[in-house]
Amino acid sequence: MNDYPFIPFNPVRFSIEQMMERSNQFYALMQKRRSLRFFSDEKIPEIVLTNIIMTAGTAPSGANKQPWAICVVTNPELKQAIRIAAEKEEQLSYSERMPEEWLADLAPLGTDWQKPFLETAPALIVFFKRNYEVVNGKKKNNYYVTESVGIAVGLLLAAIQNAGLCALTHTPSPMGFLKNLLQRPDNETPFLLIPVGYPAPDATVPDIARKAANDFIYRY
Q1: 207 φ, ψ to 5°?
Q2: Which residues contact 107 (CB under 8 A, 6 or more apart)?
Q3: Residue 72 in contact with residue 49, Cβ under 8 Å?
Q4: CB environment 144-160: b (16+ within 10 A), e (fewer)
Q5: For 177-216, what is each residue's pLDDT tens digit?
Q6: What is the tens place of the pLDDT at every residue in 41-63?
Q7: Vertex 65 angle, CA 61 and 69, to 5°
Q8: Taking the domains of the chain in order of start, what are their residue ranges?
Q9: Which of 138, 140, 135, 110 lies closest to 38 in space, CA to CA?
Q10: Among 13, 42, 129, 146, which one is most buried in terms of CB atoms within 10 A?
């Protein structure tokens, strides 16, 4: 058993006034975050993509296993292959798999099986869950994998917004084609496909609102 050494913790701390200002500013920034389906093909600096993904990697995880693999796809041919495979699954979902209630809920958002943004967006970030590790030929479990990866995705989305970019959490189902196209190992399962980029000049989003504080915050 390998014990981690403990080191001093050096916290970041602000005054009450700074806390209020920073939390207000960050909330205002995140309040502008929208799921976008209309991207420009303008390239993103590689260091920005790296910083965004490294921010996701700061997420807490069960037993510090960090059970994720994050793939960045910028190759046009591979993006096209992903779009073709995703649209094949999405067409089946919209025509056969989704119940009427689900389709009715999606209708006001104007979505359909066609996903051109998978080619237009300059980068696709694909999250995989690493369900276990193989160490010296033996399987070692990871813990709270879905929860850990979900938190990492949340940090990624915040980092994307902070960088002045836009994203979409895309979940074509099933997503096995991502594992095949990206040639990922057996211990990984696709979790989310996230196009990232700048908005197209004529981009639009649905005129929807988020819940008010009283609708989802319960204080005890």
Answers
A1: -85, 80
A2: none
A3: yes
A4: ebeebbebbbebbbbbb
A5: 999 999 999 999 999 999 999 999 999 999 999 999 999 9
A6: 999 999 999 999 999 999 999 99
A7: 90
A8: 37-200
A9: 110
A10: 129
